[in-house]
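Exercise: predict the fold of this chain.
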Amino acid sequence: MYKVLIVGCGKVAGYFDDLKNTEQNESHLSAFRSNSSFEVAGCVDIDRDKAEEFSCKSGIPYSGDDLSDAISNVAPDVVLITTPDETHFAVTSKLLKLPSPLPRIVLLEKPACGSENELNILRRMADDRNVPIFVNHSRRFSQLYKKLRTGFKENKFGALLRIDGTYYGGWRHSGVHLVDTIRYVSGLELTNLLIVEKVCDGQSDDSTYTVKGELGPQKIPVWFHGWNQEHYQIFDFDFRFSGGRLRVSNFEEQVIWEEPHKNLMGESVLRPQSMGFPQTKESPLRSLACCIREYLDDNRSDMLEGCLLTELAPTMRTLWQVENGIRNETN
């Protein structure tokens, strides 16, 4: 059984999990506990009381507030870094500076880091210590988006005409999901990104923007619509193809494919059609845990393809391109 250490004991880690209704939990704790190959053997947080509370509530054997001590005591095969966004670089670089033996793999929450310089440092350290950094862009493990990616490659939907996405809670923290999913599904890169609006939602360190851009050499229009989460949270996609429209709404709770049909007046209107897209919410994190297990079992590096730090660098650069544009305008 592979030992897992959780670094950062907040919401993403599983602090608020309902242990009586585990199927409803979408956390790192629940994902790795659902797989019999893993034991969540320890947790660590700079707030020792929080770590102890998380440990006691969840039945995790070890807790503490020092990363080095946690590595020595737990000897984990997998380290899950679920600390706040702005700490990802500091925590990961500290881990990779520790003496051997280090874990066999690090699962790092998105966004991986805050700048190109930090990205390059982490890449070098991971290579030098032979510890792959696997970044949690979880929608890459979703059967829905895998099917959409395949359909896109096989031109099942016709030409892509436009994409609209809606997100909340910060360009880096949540906008990254839109950016990376669009890159993953289309296989194309985003360019000519321009901020249209800054959404006043109380976010200070990570602003929420409405951004327009273009996708691929055909310059397909893409909109990232920022939403004020003080009202409620929205995460949606609207893919418009020449052959129809795909709407993915409410965090993948609703998936609707519509195709054009002629009405009695000869007008082309959209009507729902079945395309075999998954209609029930899944757990990409549990699929991710399975990939990590297969990597550990047989050293199958192919199970990590697409989510390693180096491969996700273009997603981070897209985010920084928008933020750098803001900085340049204010200088």
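Check your answer against the key: The CA atoms of residues 46 and 65 lie 5 Å apart.
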